[in-house]
Amino acid sequence: MLIEPIRNLFSRGVVVKAGVPGSIAEDVLPAELEPMAGVHPRRHLEFVAGRSLARQGLRELGVASFVLLSDSKRAPIWPAGISGSITHKPELCVVVVAPMSRARSLGIDAEPEDELKTELWKAVLDSQETAAVARLPDPGVAARIMFSAKESIYKCQYPITRQYLGFHDVHLEMDWGARRFNCLMPESVAGEVGGSMTGSWCVSAGHIVTAVEFRG
Ligand SMILES: CC(C)(COP(=O)(O)OP(=O)(O)OC[C@H]1O[C@@H](n2cnc3c(N)ncnc32)[C@H](O)[C@@H]1OP(=O)(O)O)[C@@H](O)C(=O)NCCC(=O)NCCS
Question: Which pTM does this prediction carry?
Fold first, then answer.
């Protein structure tokens, strides 16, 4: 798999691991699997992919045998001093990890490169964002990119703020040419993550991949 475009979304020092669920060497610990008892086989497969790639990444950072559990909101509990993020879809799993001295928090999200159904736009985009995508040649895919951007923002801010944010709590300003976005954050979290967070995206292996790196 061509992982270079995804790697280029992050600065040096961030370890990026990617693969296709089902074809990644399984490396998951029994304690990690406990919450997966009885889940759909697809969820199980993708979870195992995420944990296995996370273990590869952590090993590269010199962390061996760490049990990567999740908190009550499903956020992974990374080892002290390490930030990370996981995304998995049936055909792509990506994990990023870094020492917090490089990146205080990370967010990554992958979505299939297809259109976000118009009936979902209202739930994800505000009126200004909707008007912005409607002007583009491929509005459905553009809306999907914005959906993914908000999810990667969420994953990046959550480990710092521990706050749930809905899609209408943030506002995206997109630079379509540079494939970058600026996300205006609500007051409730601005004290911790600033008034805006930035990210970027690429298209790789048939997926839109959005990335957010928060230096702190
Ligand atoms: C949490 C959420 C973003 C996950 O996205 P998704 O497309 O469903 O799934 P992905 O495969 O991309 O990501 C799943 C992984 O995200 C990670 N994750 C889940 N909750 C998380 C959280 N609160 N913080 C950080 N990471 C989280 C987990 O590692 C999870 O995988 P795992 O359960 O196997 O460990 C999504 O389910 C959600 O709740 N969205 C609503 C909030 C939101 O996006 N707001 C936008 C405005 S900020």
Answer: 0.98
- 28-65 pLDDT, tens per residue? 999 999 999 999 999 999 999 999 999 999 999 999 98
Ligand 1 touching residue 210 (CB < 6 A): no
Distance CA 116, CA 212 (A): 21
pLDDT tens track for 77-132: 999 999 999 999 999 999 999 999 999 999 999 999 999 999 999 999 999 999 99
147 CB-side CA count, 13 A: 21
Residue 147 Cβ < 6 Å to ligand 1? no
CATH 3.90.470.20 at 1-216, yes or no: yes
Q: For residue 94, which of 171, 189, 14 has the smallest C-alpha distance? A: 14
Alpha-carbon span 169 to 11, nearest angstrom: 27
Instruction: Report CA torsion sign: 66, 67, 71, 74.
Output: positive
From ligand 1's centre to the CA of 47, what distance in Å?
12
Give the number of the atom of ligand 1 that is nearest the alpha carbon of residue 183: 48
